Amino acid sequence: MKSSELLKQLRFIRYHNSQGRVIPIHHAFKTIELNSFSRTSAIILPVLFLSVFWLMLPEILDFWAGVMNFWMQRIYQAVVNYEQVSILGQNVYVPYPMLEAEMPSKRLVLLNLIICFVVFALSLLLPKKWIPLTYLMRTLLLIQGSASVNRLLSPDFFPYTMKIYMLDSLTLCVYMLMVLPLLLGLVYYIFDFPVWRKCLLTILMLVYYLLFIPCQYTLHAYLIHEYSMIMLPVLYIFFGVLLDVLTFVSIYSFGMSWRSRRNALRGRGA
What we know:
The chain has about 270 residues and is mostly helical. The protein is about 65% helix and about 5% strand. It has two domains: about 30-105 and about 160-265, no CATH class; about 105-155.
């Protein structure tokens, strides 16, 4: 056997598994090769999606209002109200559930603090294999307990009302969705994926958020209305934009798993 054929055979054995499939190179050793196609798609696609989103923003907010109204009519026979907001030069009406929220009574504040303390103490008894869940639970309890401490120290002051919280949160979500195509242009479109996959991932993200966000904040409004403003801090910190960002990471990871053979072979001398 010639030396060139032997080297080729050794390279094949080195980079293929027992089934003859290519062993993908580890992410730590990959390099990004920006070709003209990737650079062009990283510029054109974000502008395209952002323009379409901006033009369809009134219809999107009307859809959010319909989703919120669907739940409000089935829970409280309540209505959805609107507030005019200027977003990138366009005056739109942001919907929000028309629900009132009371400040917590002193009895509820003390009860919330006691429950948080008792559950936190019980978490010390959980087995070590549950440490990730334990740390998450303790963090939630600390935030929820801090809401009671704040009420005890400043019983007459609270920076938010239900209306302000809903409007600020939903407006922030609109800006987040407008930034989403730009972010994908920096972290996803630069990779060597077909255009249809880049568009598919973006549409998948946008459709998910367009359905999830109105349901998410209708649930926030329901919980705050039922259990007073003492629920707001933990909902805002853990189940608001942070939850949306974690969802973005999850869908983005799913999109990054769409590897092509050329990406798998990159760096293998093939």
